[in-house]
From TrEMBL:
The lineage of its organism: Bacteria, Pseudomonadati, Pseudomonadota, Alphaproteobacteria, Hyphomicrobiales. GO terms for biological process: dTDP-rhamnose biosynthetic process. Keywords: NADP, Oxidoreductase. Residues 1-291 form the RmlD-like substrate binding domain. Pathway: Carbohydrate biosynthesis; dTDP-L-rhamnose biosynthesis. Belongs to the dTDP-4-dehydrorhamnose reductase family. This is dTDP-4-dehydrorhamnose reductase. One of its GO terms (molecular function) is dTDP-4-dehydrorhamnose reductase activity. InterPro entries: dTDP_dehydrorham_reduct (IPR005913), NAD(P)-bd_dom_sf (IPR036291), RmlD-like-bd (IPR029903).
């Protein structure tokens, strides 16, 4: 199976490349700039067609949440127009598209996990353009799987886990917001889920489960609790750690409003695909221990 994925450096793309290597029958073709530039939709169709995909994964996006408030046109071009162009290119080739979206399409209120049918209400440019991207994908390709996820981290790129470990190297205490709740989600787990989804579609020509799903780590926590778990894991593995001071979102103002409730229910995905991500603590421990082992390896070389 030949999976073409947009982007070359993102956490999910790099995780897909790594996880697919464990399967002898899956080839990942990662497409990025300049050959495929979501900000220039005219580059999309030819790049994807030349890669001859069996399925397309639309993973690349404009994800700078605060910067999007200053660059709404660029965010719209990439997250909405670009996403639509990717889905349309897949449709023209007669293949399905798996598109990654976000918890930011919701208002971020309430205290229970969002389901796929809950009311939408993005509070900023990033969430709004990602929601526009969902609509563009749905309109362009009836064979679509939209996966909304949240709080993504991995051994790759920039993310909360790596930031906490870096801060612990020079600080005894780190202040982290405690009134925002969500599902920490490993990009490695997202990659595994995408592979399972692609396999299911590939072996079932009459697959009827296209639509919107939530895909996130199992269980939820607030950001400060997530930080404590990262530091506890690091300490147990001989790495840096720090105390965590709880603060309110109001004490850490950002240009874009962050959702207080990012919890996502993944029951629908489990019902259809029979797959659920590990508990978030398990995947966090795996990522922290790997990062520390890799750091020790670099220091020893």
């Amino acid at each position: 199976m030949r999976i073409v994925v947009t982007g070359t450096e993102g956490q999910v793309v790099r995780s897909l490349v790594e996880r697919a290597a464990r399967h002898g029958d899956i080839e990942i073709i990662a497409l990025g700039r300049p050959d495929l530039d979501l900000a220039v939709p005219s580059t999309v169709a030819n790049a994807i067609a030349e890669a001859k995909p069996d399925i397309v994964v639309s993973a690349a996006a404009y994800t700078a949440v605060d910067q999007a408030e200053d660059e709404p046109e660029l965010a719209h071009a990439i997250n909405a127009l670009g996403a639509g162009a990717v889905a349309r290119a897949a449709a023209d080739l007669g293949v399905p598209v798996i598109h990654l979206s976000t918890d930011y399409v919701f208002a971020g209120d309430g205290e229970v996990p969002y389901t796929e049918t809950d009311a939408l209400g993005p509070q900023g440019v990033y969430g709004r353009t990602k929601l526009e991207g969902e609509a563009a994908v749905i309109a362009a390709n009836p064979r679509h799987i939209i996966l909304r996820t949240a709080w993504v981290y991995s051994p790759f790129g920039k993310n909360f886990v790596k930031t906490m470990l870096r801060l612990a190297e020079t600080r005894d205490q780190v202040s982290v917001v405690s009134d925002q709740w969500g599902n920490p989600t490993s990009a490695i787990d997202i990659a595994d889920a995408i592979i399972e989804t692609a396999r299911r579609i590939d072996v079932e020509p009459s697959f009827t489960g296209y639509g919107i799903y939530h895909l996130a780590g199992t269980g939820n926590i607030n950001w400060s609790g997530f930080a404590r778990a990262i530091f506890a894991s690091s300490r147990n593995n001989g790495g840096p750690f720090a105390e965590v001071a709880d603060i309110a979102s109001a004490d850490y103002p950002t240009k874009a409003k962050r959702p207080f409730n990012s919890r996502l229910s993944t029951d629908k995905f489990f019902k259809v695909f029979g797959w659920r991500a590990p508990d978030w603590q398990v995947s966090t421990e795996a990522t922290v221990s790997r990062l520390l082992a890799e750091a020790k390896g670099r220091d020893a070389s």
